[in-house]
Every structure is written in structure tokens, then in C-alpha cells.
Design a protein that fits this description.
By secondary structure, the chain is α/β, with parallel strands linked by helices. The protein is 14% helix and 30% strand.
Length: 210
């Protein structure tokens, strides 16, 4: 079993601990948070250590790390800690559910978390630091770039490109052969039928630029 440290003590960290423990070849040995957010010294009966002292207690050559922060501030918090862990020299863990369907030639980057019942079709490319919650459909030849958060039951049709740092809400739909710019928020239940070419766009339901 590979030894894993989860960064965070939030509900997503609880979920990550469950999935890594019962559906991966990782063994969770500790949790870590930035020192100003430490509220207790144990979590799931494992030690909680300050992130700034992590490499002194758990040498990077012996441990992997997964950052269990959510999509706050357009995924920037999760991205920042993930990159800091890499700078410290830690191996970066990913999780792929045994109940996800991922075609043989799909490319998936590092530090991804792909939940159950995701369907990822042929020739899809997924960047680094991407979370896909349960039940999504990722159509053929689509590209999901770094630091995206895909909520549940999202449909990304074929030949789409999703830019960096995007958030796609529950039950949103991206029509075929569209491009979504970086830093866009697609609200829950939104049907996107045109390209979004301006970075930082919010699209609600019905789909419209705000």
C-alpha cells in the first residue's frame, strides 16, 4: 500500500479518506492543513499536522499527497496547495473510481479525483487537478483543462474544450463542439449552446452572459 497524506479536514477530506481507503491502493496515514486552520490534532483517528512542517514529519520521498479542497475562489485554493506540495517534492495522488467507465485511450493528468458513474469516452484529455463528481458524461475528443471542478450529472458533449479553472454546476449541459474560456462558471441546470470566449464569464439558467 502506498502511504497517503490528505490535505484538509473538511467534508471533502472525509469523502477522500473513504474512497482512497476502500477503493484504491493507498493507505491514508495523516491529514494536514495550514497552521491557521488547525482545529484539532486528530481526524479519523489519524494525526493532523501543520502543512508548513509536513516534510519534516513525513519525508516527501516516502509519501504521496492529495489536496481535498473544493472549488472556492475558482479552484485557486486547491491549486495553490497542490502546487506547494509539488514544490516540497511530494508525489501527487489521483483517485479513479472502480465504478467509473473510462475508455482505454483517455488521457488523465495528475491530482485528479473521478467519482463513480462517470462516463469518459474515447480520445478525451483531462488536465491536472480536476475533480469530476459522480454521474457525468464526457463526450469523445473533448478536452478538460487544468484545475476544473465538474459537478454531478454534467453533460459535456463531443469535441468540446473546457478552459482552465472552470466550474460546471449540477445538471449543466455543454452542446457539441463548443469552447468554454478559462475561469468560467456554468450555473446548475444551464444549457450552453454557444462558445464562451471571454474569460471569467458566469452563465446562468437560461444561458446568458452576466
Amino acid at each position: 500500500m502506498k502511504k497517503l497524506i490528505i490535505i484538509g479536514t473538511n467534508p471533502l477530506a472525509e469523502i477522500a479518506n473513504e474512497y482512497f481507503t476502500y477503493d484504491s491502493d493507498y493507505s491514508v496515514v495523516a491529514f494536514s492543513v495550514e497552521k491557521e486552520f488547525i482545529e484539532h490534532d486528530r481526524f479519523f483517528n489519524k494525526p493532523v499536522v501543520s502543512f508548513d512542517k509536513l516534510e519534516k514529519l513525513y519525508p516527501p520521498q516516502n509519501y504521496s499527497v492529495f489536496v481535498s479542497l473544493g472549488y472556492g475562489r475558482m479552484n485557486n485554493d486547491r491549486t495553490r496547495i497542490y502546487l506547494k506540495a509539488k514544490e516540497k517534492g511530494y508525489k501527487i495522488a489521483s483517485y479513479l473510481s472502480s465504478n467509473a467507465f473510462v475508455w482505454r485511450n483517455v488521457e488523465i493528468g495528475e491530482h485528479c479525483f473521478i467519482f463513480e458513474n462517470n462516463t469518459v469516452q474515447p480520445f478525451v484529455k483531462v488536465g491536472n487537478n480536476v475533480i469530476m463528481w459522480s454521474g457525468n458524461h464526457i463526450g469523445h475528443h473533448s478536452i478538460i483543462k487544468d484545475n476544473c471542478f465538474i459537478s454531478s450529472h454534467v453533460v459535456i458533449s463531443g469535441l468540446c474544450t473546457i478552459g482552465k479553472n472552470c466550474f460546471l454546476g449540477v445538471n449543466s449541459t455543454i452542446s457539441n463542439n463548443l469552447t468554454i474560456a478559462d475561469n468560467c462558471i456554468i450555473g446548475a441546470g444551464t444549457n450552453v449552446i454557444n462558445d464562451l470566449i471571454e474569460s471569467g464569464t458566469y452563465v446562468g439558467n437560461p444561458a446568458r452572459k452576466i
